[in-house]
Amino acid sequence: MQKLLELKNLVKHYPIRGGIFRRQVNSVKAVDGIDLDIYKGECLGLVGESGCGKTTVSKTIVRLHDPTSGEIHFHKQNGSETVVTDISRISHNALKKSKIRGKLQMVFQDPTTSMDPRMLIKNVIAEPIKGLEKTSSRELESRIIELLNLVGLSKYHLLRYPHEFSGGQRQRIAVARAIATKPDFIVLDEPTSALDVSVQAQILNLLKKLQEEFNLTYLFVTHHLLVVKYISTRIAVMYLGKIVESAPTDRLFERPVHPYTNALLSGIPVPNVNYTPRPIILSGDVPSPIDPPPGCRFSTRCPFVKERCSAEIPKLKEIEPGHSVACHLASETEKLIADKYGSR
Q: Is 192 strand, coil or helix?
């Protein structure tokens, strides 16, 4: 598979300032050194509890936030050659001039707050096109109508304001705006969490249709495991600023390895009256990202923690093709979980 994006030791810390001179006294370690490859044409699901750093990763990838350190390599095909650009090192102006800005787009969680309420829908969709290209008014309007048709709306919606639409329609408009610049990669930051269940299904099917039609690559950020199972080809699990496991979707749901992944999946409801669930209940709360625990970030809540876990940071290692885990007990986890909680 051809790589589209490659994250190398990506770090994003937010400074905490205090005192009279507002000096930095600490930092929020939202993303603390992750390595991740995203391949062309796939949908990579990024899951984890609220506050684990999922949205920070996505906003840093598209350079809405500047990384503290690390590299973001964007692979662009130029004829038979692949040109690799480290977009973490170039300025926002240079990013725009290089035309990479239009290739990386984002759909936000709340379609209401992601649009200017004073702008007509035609201007909402036209804004990214006008910012990156020179085009005539007639051609621009034609493109906007085409984009609206692609997401299930029509030209009669052009002269309306965002508040005149339902939540599902607003999210369709947000998707139209995201594909307006003909991107290669789109971050979908919980695009269905603010919608009704029936509308969620419509938006997910629309996203799958557009991906097939335009060969798009998605990073789908969510905490809804059944949604990510439906749309994703591969899943990465995050905990407190670190990737703890990544694998193809079917493999992850069938045989999760990391204790945290097992705990997440054990909470999925099973529609079977004869099934007695045995969820893995984690003790304690998620530690603060200001002062994360030493060693494994999950060591303070892991039911199988050992002395090594609290002293040494586990590296993300491939245990089989396409399946990587950051756990010192990876080879023992399946047996430990079966002994303590029973087979899944």
A: coil
Rg (CA), the chain: 22
Q: For the stretch 82-112, what's the b/e string if a residue is b when 16 or more beta carbons lie within 10 angstroms of its beta carbon?
A: eeebebbeeeeeebeeeebbbbbbbbbbbbe
Token look-up 């964007």 returns 74
Q: State the pairing for strand pair 104-107/81-86.
A: unpaired
Quote the tokens at residue 176: 């139209």
Domain presence at residue 252: no
In a domain, 317, yes or no: yes
Both 26 and 118 in a single domain?
yes
CA distances from 268 to 90, 223, 249 (A): 42, 11, 15
Same domain flag for 261 and 228: no
- CA-wise closest residue to 177 among 132, 122, 118, 214: 122
Task: Tell whether 306 and 166 lie within a shared domain.
Answer: no
Secondary structure class of 339 (helix, strand, coil): helix
Residue pLDDT, tens place only, 99-151: 899 999 999 988 889 899 999 999 999 999 998 888 899 999 999 999 999 99
Tell me, yes or no, whether 169 lies in a domain: yes
Q: How many residues does the chain have?
A: 344
Domain of residue 61 covers: 3-232
Side by side, the strands of the sheet bearing 43-47 are 104-107, 185-189, 217-221, 43-47, 234-239, 242-248, 323-325, 317-320
Provide the percentage of residues in the chain whose pLDDT is more than 70: 98
Of the candidates 280, 279, 278, 316, the residue with the CA atom closest to the CA atom of residue 297: 316
Domain annotation covers residue 204: yes
> What tokens appear for 16 in the block?
């905490």
Domain count, the chain: 2
Residues 6+ apart with CB under 8 A from 212: none
- Tokens representing 277? 């669930």
